[in-house]
Write a structure and sequence with these properties.
Layout: H1 8-32, H2 42-63, H3 74-80, H4 84-92, H5 108-139, H6 146-154, H7 161-172, H8 177-184, H9 196-220, H10 224-232, H11 237-266, H12 269-274, H13 282-292, H14 296-320
Helix pairs in contact: 1-2, 2-14, 3-14, 5-9, 5-11, 9-11, 10-11, 11-14, 13-14
Length: 330
């Protein structure tokens, strides 16, 4: 990280936040002649400023500046044209990029983003198709095993995310459990690892609970008398579902889509383990730009592009579910 230069003002911001916290503490104690209960929320506010707000400001700073600290939009141009830095270096050395076959725009970054969004779209769609019936069954008050299924969804989440993903390797690898079973049944080995299908499987497995629980939360809180009233008025079970149950669960659906889609776009460990380097998603690209290429400016620009997508997703959630009714996991 030799090219990284942390601006001095970032340390001033953290110092001023800490000083403001101490000053408000002293003033509040003097004014109220003691500590009010609401003051105990301030340490969390200070923590959010230091660990979240300041890093976001730094990312925006690096994305909008070059290595010398001057304002530039070149980093976003590098996102659009992945060969732009190489072309600039070749021109500085007196070479013609077009003669070396680098005249065309490099599409690696944009293609990786498009591929990541497509994989995230598939993961979200599959999670919705699998998760909605599961949430509907768990929320059924007449189904006695609903709470048991809830626990079965929660238990895998107690295990570390990395371990859950690595565990799939013992199932999908060439000498894994599934291929061993196929061979014992007289079938040949199947290539289950190091492809997009394996990555998609790992994504659905890890993010499915984040689709199930918001929908389950919305369905479990609905008033059963609404469905009973609809059926008393002549609606059958199918029409009752579409006109009563499904609209009530819409906040949970929107929340689940948001909670699955955005982590799916930015995931980087699952493609590395199950994709074996044959697939690269946007999270891998950001990590490689930061750690391997040691280019914090372009890496921050890539991160800022992803933040814009996250804000758009949150804006959609706020518009469809303004009260946040489907936002909790349990």
């Amino acid at each position: 990280m030799n090219n990284l230069h942390v601006p001095e003002w970032s340390f001033w911001v953290m110092g001023l936040a800490l000083a403001a916290f101490v000053g408000m503490f002293i003033q509040m104690v003097r004014r109220n002649k003691g500590i009010r209960r609401s003051f105990y929320a301030w340490p969390y506010t200070l923590w959010m400023i230091i660990s979240t707000v300041v890093p976001l400001i730094l990312i925006a700073y690096y994305a909008l500046t070059d290595k010398s600290g001057s304002f530039t939009l070149e980093n976003f141009a590098n996102f659009w044209d992945s060969n732009r830095n190489m072309k600039t270096e070749l021109l500085a050395q007196g070479f013609n990029p077009e003669e070396l076959g680098l005249g065309a725009r490099g599409t690696v970054n944009v293609d990786t983003l498009a591929y990541s969004m497509w994989m995230a779209f598939l993961c979200t769609g599959i999670s919705l198709l699998l998760g909605y019936p599961a949430a509907l069954i768990m929320a059924d008050r007449e189904f006695r095993l609903g709470s048991t299924i809830v626990v079965l969804f929660i238990i895998p989440m107690w295990m570390n995310f990395l371990l859950r993903t690595i565990a799939w390797m013992s199932l999908l690898e060439d000498n894994g459990l599934i291929n061993t079973l196929l061979e014992s049944l007289g079938f040949g080995k199947a290539r289950l690892m190091y492809n997009s299908q394996a990555v998609l499987l790992g994504m659905v497995y890890n993010y499915l609970p984040f689709m199930v629980f918001p929908i389950y939360n919305s369905l479990s809180r609905q008033d059963a008398r609404l469905s009973e009233a609809a059926m008393d008025l002549g609606a059958n079970k199918w029409k009752t579902f579409w006109r009563v149950v499904f609209p009530i669960s819409m906040p949970g659906i929107v929340s689940g889509i948001t909670m699955v889609f955005m982590p799916s776009v930015t995931t980087f460990f699952i493609p590395r383990v199950l994709g074996g380097g044959n697939t690269e998603m946007f999270g891998d690209l950001i990590e490689r730009t930061f750690l391997t290429a040691d280019d914090w400016n372009v890496g921050s620009a890539l991160s800022l592009v992803m933040m814009v997508l996250i804000l758009l997703s949150l804006g959609l959630l706020r518009k469809v579910d303004p009260e946040g009714e489907g936002g909790s996991l349990i």
